[in-house]
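My main concern about presentation is that the manuscript never shows what a single data entry looks like. For the editor and my fellow referees, an illustration may be useful. For illustration, here is how one protein appears when written out as sequence plus structure tokens:

***
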Amino acid sequence: MNPARPGAAYGYVDMGGWVGGQAEYAMVPYADFNLLKFPDRDQAREKLLDLTMLSDIFPTGFHGAVTAGAGVGSTVYVAGAGPVGLAAAASAQLLGAAVVIVGDLNAERLAQARSFGCETVDVSRGGVEDQIAEILGEPEVDAAVDAVGFEARAHGPNAAEAPATVLNSLMGITRAGGALGIPGLYVTDDPGGIDQDARAGTLKVRLGLGWAKSHRLTTGQCPVMRYHRGLMKAILHERVHIAKAVNATVIGLEDAPRGYAEFDQGASRKYVLDPHGALEGVRPV
């Protein structure tokens, strides 16, 4: 699919020549393999906004929760309350977690996490250990998900960018023998990085701490097709309401620049581009 380097994706930065995806039409290479067929057209149309989340965000969040070891009765911390973080939190609930805690510095996004039963911590108040202890009675969790990535900020009020903050924080709060799922994006080239190391994707991570606690770390692009059929069934059979959890908001293709600008300012929405009106009148359920 991509002879230049591992991985390939439609329009994804630096991962192969499949250009575009946010357009009136998109070519789907190897469509007989890549497309997911819905079993019932009418049933699918009723859930179309939720099913749209299968294209990336829901499997990505689910991958983070699975690789972090979220399961029945587990305690899970998700760093980041953007769409992927919210999808990871909803996924941890789907997997049977007893308590899901979401951390962020954006009050609107934290409120969205609470709207479907998550506990929250405000990282603008400082480190997360004490806030987790207030919720759980202990300053650690069984599983942790990094849904922030390379643009992470330090904890505390008006904190500056500090790319390794989330990874180091998760190593501190994840129990010995636990795991970190890392769907958050890390890159090899960040021209806007705060220093030369950050610009090259080189982070000062406390690997010694992770080693001492026997942590497992899973990184990389989500294998969407590993999960999307099962998640489709969970949506169709009312086991999860992912569009509502991530506040999916439908806009026209011509409104994409506005959607990007609002999201960049911290809007707690997952914008869905609808170039042909297929989602007209559809709302999260």
Remarks:
- Residues 247-285 form one domain.
- The chain has a mean pLDDT of 92.
